[in-house]
Amino acid sequence: MQPFSKSLVQGNLKIKSRGSPRHYARLTGQVRYFTKLAAGRVVNISARGIALDLQSPLYAAAGSKVRVECDDIGLLDGFVRWAHNGRIGIEFDRSSNASAKVASYFRFFHKDIKPVLKR
Predict the structure, then answer these.
(1) Which residues form the PilZ domain (predicted)?
(2) CA 24 vs CA 6, 44, 106: distances in Å
(3) What is the CATH number of the domain that holds 43?
């Protein structure tokens, strides 16, 4: 059996690959969904989105509009892309200034780290 090329498999399955690289971070933040607020820790961040490990459950469906409140970056508006096992992935709203705030964070404050715990 011949191995499949990555582009062929992605073309057949119509899977989108990640558009920007992820960077591990050690930041704290909160996710606001309507009146609900869940505190958490930023697992990784990229120019297009952020993933958080939440301390309490947040019942937000994929596509829901949320706001991330992070002391080091500021307020970031986005949409839930996935939620699984106490973690949530948020894609930044392209009409907001979230990408500019994240670019500024990477330019002035981000330090590369390695994760110490794995799930």
Answers:
(1) 18-99
(2) 25, 4, 11
(3) 2.40.10.220
